[in-house]
Amino acid sequence: VLFRSVDLEDIKFHQCVRLARFENDRTISFIPPDGSFDLMTYRLSTQVKPLIWVEAQVERYSRSRVEMLIKAKSQFKERSYATNVEIELPVPPDATNPSVRTSMGSATYAPENDAIMWKIRSFPGNKEYLLRAEFLLPSVSADDGVPER
Fold it and tell me: Where is the MHD domain (predicted)?
């Protein structure tokens, strides 16, 4: 069996991880705390195929109306599942009246993050889901509203 290694950078572990064990034999050993937590965060320096590929298509139908079509496709085997997937979609800070529809999961506007948060509880392998969002922007541009003298 051939294993391909991936270099991880900027690794940060939750405080419950036994760091000495990891430094000794690269085993991540821990006693989980109560509730949900992030075990580790890291960055990849090499190109890898993402588990979920996200594409965005943005259409501006007028100076004030914008529509986003987001496609999320899982790129792993059909018999596998990704759980509790969250996709954060940035929107302009002055976006108003967002209307969002999804083919799977739920989506909410998070104005404090200037984003739409799309949550999919169970994402099977080799599946594709869509999100369509429409919102308004102020229709003021640089040459609008400048009175002539």
Answer: 1-149
Is 143 within a domain? no
Q: Is the pTM of this model over 0.85?
A: no
Name which of 69, 63, 78 is nearest 141 in CA terms: 63
Domain with 70, as residue range(s), is 52-136
Take residue 64 and report the two structure tokens written for it. 């004030």
Distance CA 105, CA 127 (A): 13
What is the amino acid identity at position 38?
D
DSSP state of 17: B
Per-residue tens of pLDDT for the chain, all 149 residues: 566 677 888 999 999 999 999 999 989 999 999 998 999 998 887 777 889 999 999 999 888 899 999 999 999 999 999 999 999 999 999 998 899 999 999 999 999 999 999 999 999 999 999 999 999 998 655 544 444 44
Q: Determine, yes or no, domain membership for 17.
A: yes
Cα–Cα dist 108/12, whole Å = 29
Pinpoint the alpha helices (H) of 18-71: 19-25
Q: Give the span between the Cα atoms of 26 and 4, in whole angstroms.
A: 16
| Contact indicator for 131, 119 with CB cutoff of 8 Å | no
